[in-house]
Design a protein that fits this description.
binds adenosine-5'-diphosphate; globular; ROK_cs; about 290 residues; ROK; five-stranded mixed beta sheet; nucleotide-binding; Nucleotidyltransferase, domain 5; binds zinc ion; carbohydrate metabolism; alpha/beta
Length: about 290
Amino acid sequence: MLFGALEAGGTKIVCAIGNENGEIFEQISIPTETPEITLTKIAAYFKKHPIEALGIGSFGPIDLDKTSPTYGFITTTPKLAWANCNLVEYFKKELCCPIGFDTDVNASALGEVTWGSAKGLNSSIYITVGTGIGVGVYQNGSLAHGMLHPEAGHILLAKHPEDSYKGKCPYHGTCLEGLASGPAIEDRWGQKAINLVSEMKVWQLEAYYLAQAIVNYILILSPKRIILGGGVMHQTQLFPLIRKQVKELLGGYIQTKELDDLDTYIVPAGLNDNQGIMGCLELARLSI
Ligand code: ADP
Ligand code: ZN
């Protein structure tokens, strides 16, 4: 079966054609301009292929409540041209097929549980550390929604006593995203993260905040595995630093077989940065 996959990010939009096995046959990437310009291009691309359904993983916040009059909308996004954009209705009309819809990070979480590092588990979380920080939550065999969807990249954390950085989040200053996203690293240290590879103190501090967040996620959600992806996590030296601090912060309070082996509990994404677009294929499959 042929499915369409649409991963909508703030700077670029990836469109792909694939199947129910997560195989991608072709894909294109276009810049995110205004909805008027960009949506027309996307629809034209998918119309060239006989897809059975389209899966969309979108930046947000988005409305995922199927009983809501604004289901399928991007809602209050800071990308103002896209606020109140009815994505699901637009593609339903243009493509006349079922549309699966979720957040970009939930799509990545779904890709990872279907084919990647959490394959076969009924509970896991996927954390992306990139331009922003987002968390996709998979629990009891499905993606967690609620009144909206989790926004666990914005949880509030204790500042490191030696960190005087004011934080990058326009809403909360020093939430996790404000302290540990790629732009926060760049702003705090005056250089792009990629140029700070040999600065141990940068990664110690990054791990300090990610470990705090992960401990909170463990205590609240009890995931069976935690996957970290996104641009910043290409710094693989972060993994052992994070694991060590998670162990210390948990203080032995929880004892499970998963936590006995943090090397297999806190792991990198397993799909070569295709977890998002592959997750969109699965969203498409689940919509029919
Ligand atoms: P996005 O979040 O926009 O989808 P990414 O996940 O690539 O895209 O995140 C981009 C952020 O990650 C930027 O702030 C960039 O500086 C940082 N980044 C990208 N690649 C690396 C890398 N190899 N090492 C460290 N930081 C990186
Ligand atoms: Zn925030």
